[in-house]
Amino acid sequence: MRRLRDGEWIAGAGGVALLAALFLDWYSGASAWQAFSLLDVALALLALAPLGLVVLQATRESPSLPVAFSVLTTLAGAIATLLVLYRMLDQPGPNDVIEVEPGAWIGLAAALVTAAGGWRSMRAEAVRGVRTPPIEDLPAPAP
Question: What is the pLDDT of residues 111-137, one digit of tens each?
Answer without folding.
Answer: 999 999 999 999 876 666 666 667 788
